Amino acid sequence: MLTFHKNYFILFILIFFIEFIIALYINDPFIRPYLGDVLVVILIYCFIKSFFKLSVNSAALFVLLFSFVIEGLQFINIIEKIGLQHSKIAKTIIGTSFSWIDLLCYCIGILIVLFIEKQLVKKNNFNL
Q1: CA dihedral defined by 64, 112, 77, 93, rounded to 10 degrees?
Q2: Which H/E stretch holds residue 127?
Q3: By the 8 A CB rule, do 5 and 49 touch?
Q4: Which of 58, 64, 91, 114, CA to CA, is 20 to 30 A from 85?
């Protein structure tokens, strides 16, 4: 079950860097709120696939459910309930506001993962 997959880890590092740049330097009405949410599920997927030997569908479903749980925690204002409302790190990682559109962005991110994994990687014998 445990493994190390270098290519997924490289993708994880690359996407993490992009997310870091978005979080620190981009404050626009599209990239940060929408593209950032699409990328975050891809980031988590690549991290999971870096260390765990899971099927594409299992990993994608886990990441989608995990992201929905985090969004649900935002809905109940978990940051305030656990006393971390002044922590910039906690607010960045967990988030502070629930949005139905975020759930849609997570679904789009997972659909991108599934498309890439099932269409491009498998059909073209590309090794991720």
Answers
A1: 100
A2: none
A3: yes
A4: 64
